[in-house]
Recover the amino acids of this structure.
């Protein structure tokens, strides 16, 4: 935003200062005075505004810290040993340090989305103008619900989104400042700040997706978004291949536009990895989704790409070295990852192409998206014949190299999943690559094994080659990201969700750092789709769940419809589309329950927490972005389960089902405090196994507001999953059955017998109009 | 640093306070024997780890028979049930959290555990939970019986070849069985 605009707005604000005095002080922004919904209590909240709400949650869900490092080395007083009750030279405790790192991770994550949004916004404003109207979803009035809720503004144009982004940027600076030596000292205050970063992240993501959906004509919340293909097999390798990696779609849009304008699309494959792939396919379904982020090295090693275009986030930072090994030039397109490449933004395209094709430079930096298309396409066409001689690792070479293994086991110790690579290499030396092929689906593609290997064996290439030999190069259908859930859909399912008759919403999100391979995501999705939960997915998870076909050759996207209803499977889109998932929860409160949205965070979060049975699962969560996305869910009262690697975020937020006093909740009708049972039991939880995660998901979908019918449905899934995976009835049913009518009909006798033995009595667990907020008690208002 | 203190994952190095290496299996056995309320935590990898008894679940059942309380994490309790044995079950994270609470009276309500013994967990998860316990349950003694060194326990077996580990595990169990 230019300074001129800012000054103008301040003037406008001063003319209406009588009405919006509070806003004047807090953020200095104009507000939409045509919006008849009155302003709620917390528009543009600052770091401390929602602290009381956070503390209510954090009293129930206390952090269990698992330091990844016992030291702090953030200032020159350090390193400080914080083990046990030791303190750092600044007085910092271990708990505070862990929560400080959590905060920093969330700030990095939120800043990443915010910077991404800003980059897109600046470009899209240049092309479409500030007054470009937002058009995010069909059949929808409540566009951008996160922004409405947090900021109290109702964005209608790109200009309005800028206001939201200005706010997020300002707050993030405040948050990072609190991590300086000698600032915040209390771990719970750090945690509250991490929640703040998470909430901001959902605004930033919403802004990013809203501006690209509105300008680039992505699907606007349609259930039947087009299908495209995913997987190595989706690429016709006889064509010219451009590989786009990252999260920011703008450079790829220019590639697609250039191909269309020059009628070249038939001769070229545009394959994406990670969220750029999602967003490419939202732009044009002919763009292919190669796979999740963990496949980037694997795919490069096949030698197929003729040009590699990188934008931002989750790239391999050694991508230039890797691309050089296969003779493919790299085009970097973002100031955030310039990779040491020369800036050629202002040079004539043909000169740049010439330098790339002649190998005068391994890659270039082009910061103007509008130039990337021409350079990438022309370079790819010229590189294709030049690279025809490239030969990926042959089987003979693999076996020969495998024979040089020294059995030092360094590869296994370096592998995050301790995969048995050494034994597989030894078997390969004997001529069998079966063991390597078996490992490949569980490999996260990190190449730590290679870095560790004293023989410099290209172990990722070994795995890729072995899998290739076994024909693991299929292609699968994937419905392209549909974007937001529409108001009409919310109206139709709101009741079922809030009363518990639709057992829950399962959100499969996040990265691809899986403990035992990505197909576990398909297992989770299928289990809950069969049980008629609503399953929404984004990012790498939305890709991985596509990668398995049943005996009829169909995958989950082909078997389940894409609408927001029981048994629906929705590919919502890329990472930034995660805002639509929290957005849907917010809209249930607003549209179905008619709770005011505008600047009214606490009330809406209180509603979602007590009533909307949504559970996030980030089974392969890896990034700081995943941390901040999860954190935004926590503040809104949505529990999140991560896989075992997620424990490395250093802490869980766990409830104590055994402490009745922790679960006292106000009855909105009477103001009386009652025990409601541990629902939901945890706010952030790392599961050790998939089966554990599935049982926990069913359990975490219960909410105090469930009707007896709804609770019975939820309990029947919990019991059934528990019996399947734990081999017995759960031993905590007495905490979830409130009245006899809560018990699933077919299990009545058995369940009542069990819980009565545990001293259960009807009525001990309250059924009320649940709220944690004193001000929501009606007799007082 | 001795080979015995080589960690199971390269980067999961010890901090300033690190586990003592158990010099002999009987030392581990005596730590357990001396405890009033020992608890054995069995992780979800146990069925994949073969031992002289069959697998680590079978060995855990031997522990149970010596009077050590056993808790299975993840969904491992099903494997015990399938073998006709009932043990406690709790998610690994919950368990770690409860163990940091000095007022938690254990599964039977009889009082806090005084030594917690770990086998069969994912290496990095055990590393993390023990890190939490090292700082937030300082009075609790923890003992790792994996065949790779766990630096955040109070005591850990040193890293050793699998066959030595199998023998060591057997010796520990025999010592406990003798006592009984
Ligand atoms: S920030 Fe505090 S704990 Fe960290 S190194 Fe500096 S003095 Fe030590
Ligand atoms: S590339 Fe695969 S096998 Fe190698 S360390 Fe990473 S996950 Fe393990
Ligand atoms: S690190 Fe290399 S040399 Fe060592 S065991 Fe693994 S493959 Fe063999």
């Amino acid at each position: 935003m230019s300074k001129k605009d800012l000054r103008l707005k301040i003037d406008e604000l001063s003319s209406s200062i009588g009405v919006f005095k509070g806003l004047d002080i807090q953020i200095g922004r104009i507000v939409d005075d045509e919006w008849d919904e009155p302003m709620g209590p917390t528009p543009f909240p600052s770091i401390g505004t929602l602290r009381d709400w956070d503390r209510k949650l954090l009293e129930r869900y206390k952090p269990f810290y698992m330091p990844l490092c016992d030291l702090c080395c953030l200032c020159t007083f350090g390193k400080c040993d914080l083990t046990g009750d030791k303190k750092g030279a600044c007085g910092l405790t271990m708990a505070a340090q862990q929560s400080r790192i959590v905060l920093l991770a969330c700030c990095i994550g939120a800043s990443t989305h915010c910077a991404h949004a800003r980059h897109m916004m600046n470009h899209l404003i240049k092309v479409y103008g500030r007054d470009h109207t937002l058009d995010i979803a069909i059949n929808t009035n409540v566009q951008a619900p996160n922004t409405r809720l947090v900021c109290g503004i109702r964005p209608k144009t790109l200009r309005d989104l800028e206001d939201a982004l200005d706010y997020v940027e300002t707050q993030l600076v405040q948050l990072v400042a609190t991590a300086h030596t000698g600032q915040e000292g209390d771990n719970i205050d750090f945690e509250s700040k991490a929640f703040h970063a998470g909430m901001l992240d959902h605004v930033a993501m919403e802004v990013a997706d809203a501006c690209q959906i509105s300008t680039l004509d992505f699907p606007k919340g349609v259930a039947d978004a087009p299908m495209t293909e995913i997987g190595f097999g989706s690429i016709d390798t006889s064509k010219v291949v451009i590989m786009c990696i990252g999260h920011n779609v703008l450079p790829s849009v220019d590639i697609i536009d250039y191909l269309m304008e020059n009628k070249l699309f038939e001769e070229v494959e545009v394959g994406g990895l990670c969220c750029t792939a999602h967003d490419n396919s939202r732009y044009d379904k002919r763009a292919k989704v190669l796979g999740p982020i963990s496949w980037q090295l694997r795919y490069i090693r096949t030698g197929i790409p003729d040009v590699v275009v990188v934008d931002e986030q989750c790239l391999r930072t050694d991508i230039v070295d890797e691309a050089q090994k296969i003779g493919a030039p790299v085009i970097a397109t973002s100031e955030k990852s310039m990779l040491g490449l020369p800036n050629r933004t202002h040079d004539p395209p043909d000169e740049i192409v010439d330098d790339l094709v002649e190998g005068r430079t391994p890659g270039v930096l082009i910061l103007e998206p509008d130039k990337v298309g021409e350079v990438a396409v022309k370079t790819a066409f010229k590189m294709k014949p030049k690279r025809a001689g490239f030969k990926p690792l042959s089987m003979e070479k693999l076996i020969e190299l495998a024979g040089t293994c020294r059995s030092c086991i360094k590869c296994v110790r370096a592998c995050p999943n301790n995969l048995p690579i050494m034994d597989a290499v030894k078997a390969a030396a004997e001529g069998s690559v079966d063991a390597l092929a078996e490992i490949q689906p569980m490999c996260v593609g990190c190449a730590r094994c290679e870095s560790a290997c004293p023989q410099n064996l290209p172990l990722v290439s070994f795995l890729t080659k072995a899998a290739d030999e076994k024909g693991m190069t299929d292609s699968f259908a994937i419905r392209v990201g549909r974007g937001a859930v529409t108001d009409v859909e919310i109206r139709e399912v709101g009741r079922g969700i809030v009363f518990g008759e639709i057992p829950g919403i399962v959100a499969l999100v996040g990265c691809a750092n899986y403990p035992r391979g990505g197909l576990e995501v398909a297992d989770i999705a299928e289990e809950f789709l069969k049980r008629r939960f609503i399953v929404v997915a984004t990012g790498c998870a939305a890709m991985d769940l596509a990668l398995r076909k049943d005996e009829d050759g169909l995958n989950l996207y082909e078997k389940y419809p894409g609408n927001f209803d029981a048994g629906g499977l929705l590919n919502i889109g890329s990472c930034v589309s995660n805002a639509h998932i929290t957005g849907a929860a917010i809209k249930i409160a607003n549209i179905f329950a008619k709770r005011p949205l505008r600047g009214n965070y606490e009330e809406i979060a209180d509603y979602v927490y007590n009533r909307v049975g949504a559970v996030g699962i980030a089974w392969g969560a890896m990034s700081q972005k995943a941390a901040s996305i999860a954190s935004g869910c926590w503040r809104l009262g949505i529990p999140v389960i991560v896989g075992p690697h997620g424990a490395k975020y250093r802490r869980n937020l766990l409830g104590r089902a055994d402490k009745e006093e922790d679960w006292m909740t106000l009855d909105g009708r009477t103001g009386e405090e009652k025990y409601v049972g541990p629902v939901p039991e945890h706010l952030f939880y790392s599961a050790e196994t998939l089966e554990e995660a599935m049982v926990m998901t069913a359990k975490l979908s219960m909410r105090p507001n469930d009707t007896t019918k709804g609770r019975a449905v939820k309990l029947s899934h919990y019991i059934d999953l528990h019996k399947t995976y734990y081999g017995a009835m759960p031993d905590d049913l007495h905490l979830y059955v409130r009245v006899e009518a809560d018990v699933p009909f077919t299990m009545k006798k058995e369940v009542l017998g069990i819980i009565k033995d545990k001293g259960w009595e009807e009525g001990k667990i309250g059924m009320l109009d649940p709220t944690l907020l004193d001000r929501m008690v009606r007799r007082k208002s | 640093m001795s080979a015995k203190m080589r960690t199971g994952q390269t980067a999961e190095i010890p901090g300033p306070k690190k586990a003592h290496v158990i010099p002999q299996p009987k030392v581990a056995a005596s730590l357990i024997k001396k405890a009033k309320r020992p608890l054995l935590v069995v992780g979800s990898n146990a069925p994949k780890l073969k031992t002289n008894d069959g697998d680590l679940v079978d060995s855990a059942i031997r522990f149970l028979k010596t009077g050590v309380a056993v808790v299975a994490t993840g969904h491992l309790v099903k494997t015990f049930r399938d073998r006709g044995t009932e043990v406690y079950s709790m998610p690994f994270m919950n368990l770690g959290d409860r163990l940091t609470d000095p007022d938690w009276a254990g599964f039977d309500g009889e009082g806090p555990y005084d030594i917690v013994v770990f086998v069969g967990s994912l290496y990095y998860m055990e590393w993390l939970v023990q890190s939490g316990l090292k700082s937030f349950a300082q009075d609790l003694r923890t003992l790792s019986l994996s065949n790779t060194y766990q630096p955040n326990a109070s005591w850990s077996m040193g890293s050793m070849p699998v066959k030595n580990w199998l023998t060591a595990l057997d010796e520990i169990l025999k010592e406990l069985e003798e006592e009984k």
